[in-house]
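Onboarding guide, step 5: your first structure request.
Type a short instruction followed by the sequence, for example:

Predict the 3D structure of this protein.
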Amino acid sequence: NTRACIFGTLHVPATEILMEQLDKTGIKAMVGKVNMDRNGGENLCEADASAAAEDTKKWIEETAGKYERTNPILTPRFIPSCTDELMRELAKLQKTTELRVQSHLSENKSEIAFVKELHPDIPTYTEVYDAFGLVPAAKNYAVAYAVFDMFGDKDHPAVMAHCIYSEDEMDLLKEHGVYVAHCPESNLNLSSGIAPVRKFLEEGIAVGLGSDVAGGSSLSMAKALTLAVQVSKMYWRLIDEKSKPLTFAEAFYLATAGGGSYFGKVGTFLDGYEFDAVVAEDHIAKDVREYTPIQRTERMMYDESTMTICAKYAAGCACEL
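The system replies with structure tokens like these:
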């Protein structure tokens, strides 16, 4: 991994330590202090909306310009864990700071039903975020998925994890330039369902891959991309036979340029793009047959034991391995 959006914890000191340690690795990241003032469980709730918002404001001020490669991102955990008052306070912070937003959206059916109980007057889950101003609309619909500059963009796209049951909300996702973080392993482990990734792509909605640790068990994008292919096959077989499974090339795109575009001109070796690269040596036996570069890459992604990561770069700078 060379770039990442990461949920920290609701604790300011721990989130700042995470940002500090990430900055030393060389990768580029956006890190969020998690906000939740209800339904968090023992020791996992902030005192109230005011305290949560104040802590978040303090965290933003303390980390402003402090790190070279790590930036803050507003992070309401999700609607069930944030009161209306907290959502309004976070929306105010978004307007004044122009930070981006990350959260969870439509991960499972019981969650969606709970959101409906909490907001019976709002038709859909996405519209709840919209009602609070936490899926900031792209100022120009035509450039909703234009390349953004990580440091001071004019549009402020949100990134939402999962979106498994967001098929009926695709127009709103697209209108607001929302990025979908598809987390296939987490969706399997939690039996949440399968996101309609093919349909998102056909509608021009940006999709990248996520690990969702600890819903997922690995940070590996290789594992995420191969699982993305596999679950798309089950979506095709069990849910909609008109929705073709993802190809390996398409999943590789999601793991590179698909998610990379959230950070700017990232994810390919085309002219004008930042130099993000992972250098890998493969150990595939070549005495049986010759493999093309694409075949070798595919084999390494499906079996990580066949490769050794030799170097990693983000925006031209070497990263720790």
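Each response can be followed by summary notes, for example: The first helix runs from residue 12 to 25.
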